[in-house]
Amino acid sequence: MTGNQRGPAGTLDLAFDAGTLSDLRKAVRAVAVAAGLPGERADEVMFAVHELAANAVRHGGGAGRAWLDVTAGYLNCRVSDTGPGPPVGRARGDGGDPGAPWPFRPGHGLWLVRNVADHLSFQAGPYGREVTVAFRLPGPPGHLAGD
Question: Could you tell me the CA-to-CA distances from 136 to 26, 62, 95 in Å, in that order?
Answer without folding.
Answer: 20, 30, 32
